[in-house]
Design goal:
Chain lengths: 171, 171
DNA sequence: ATTGATTACCTGTCTGAACAAGTAATTGAA
DNA sequence: TTCAATTACTTGTTCAGACAGGTAATCAAT
């Protein structure tokens, strides 16, 4: 699902959407928190996407780049582990980053099966931009929450994460 | 991104993943709450997906079905508005639900452009199952949170949603 | 040293989602 | 009445992500 009536366009449409932020989509009344997670996640992802768009990166790709910038050349497997991703997804994400010129591949000297992925020099221009985008994203997400409220929010999310982790790998 | 090292398989792997739930992926340290939202959303979606799998529905499709069961035949536009979705996505979601035999299309007698989407009688078998899945999803998400904590969680999520809504439609 | 896992990656297929372009039918004016 | 929006819906393309196979290279025993 999800699209949220285009970002801009006609100019009047967004207001109409924004007017019903807490609408109970009827059926989902049985799981208000699940539904809220859906909505927040969607909005958050959309925001990340629109902040990232000018850079040419798609949501998720920036995490790969951040890791490469931080830790230098990595094998695909390492990226998969760290980002808790999937081999197939990572293969294609890296192919796209490679096509876009942000990443380069080099055979791993110690293992002929593996390849080392490294950020290109050109990609360094992106780095500050991406970091700034993450700061913006966090700030827009938090709005005017006080430090104490931010702490509560983080704790709440971590609690949800703990529950989900517990109940995800077959309970 | 995201895959979370397969649901089951070797049997030992999940534990390794579960052991580092709050790992700071280095680069994302600049946006701890944004990152927590990512992780929670991913886990939540995965859980929803795995609960839904046996029914043959994919995440998102169940929301469409729930609405159709609740409100009866709807035009595509109405579904789009209510689920805050995208016309293109809805077109294809409905095509898939149609192929799966859960919905049927009928021309709108009052508007030749529109089609009415209605749940098939066969789909009714799914209804209780889906409602049960949503209860499970909510319960697994909430873990052992007290009522008060659940209220806090919901408020927190709604606060985040409000912030994101405000800052999403061009501020 | 040969054989049988395991590991590292890749490809294909299907899903939701975003975006861009369409095609009809309908509506609103001039 | 005609003609220019608007509306309802489709189609095409590109992402991430999940799942189901592959294919080499490496490792661990026998």
């Amino acid at each position: 699902m999800a699209a949220r009536s285009r970002t801009s366009r006609t100019g009047t449409a967004p207001a109409a959407t924004a007017a019903t932020p807490l609408r109970q989509p009827t059926a989902a009344a049985g799981g208000p928190i699940s539904h809220a997670i859906f909505r927040v996640a969607r909005l958050h992802r959309m925001l990340a996407g629109s902040l990232l768009r000018p850079t040419g990166l798609y949501p998720g790709q920036e995490l790969v780049m951040m890791h490469l910038w931080d830790r230098g050349a990595q094998r695909q497997t390492d990226l998969i582990k760290v980002l808790d991703s999937d081999a197939a997804t990572m293969t294609r994400t890296i192919q796209r980053l490679e096509r876009a010129g942000f990443v380069r591949r080099r055979p791993d000297p110690s293992d002929a099966r593996a390849a080392l992925i490294e950020p290109t020099p050109a990609s360094q221009h992106l780095r500050a931009e991406i970091e700034n985008i993450w700061r913006q994203l966090e700030s827009l997400t938090l709005g005017s929450l006080t430090d104490a409220q931010q702490q509560t929010t983080l704790s709440t999310l971590e609690e949800l994460e703990r529950n989900l982790l517990e109940n995800t790998s077959e309970p």
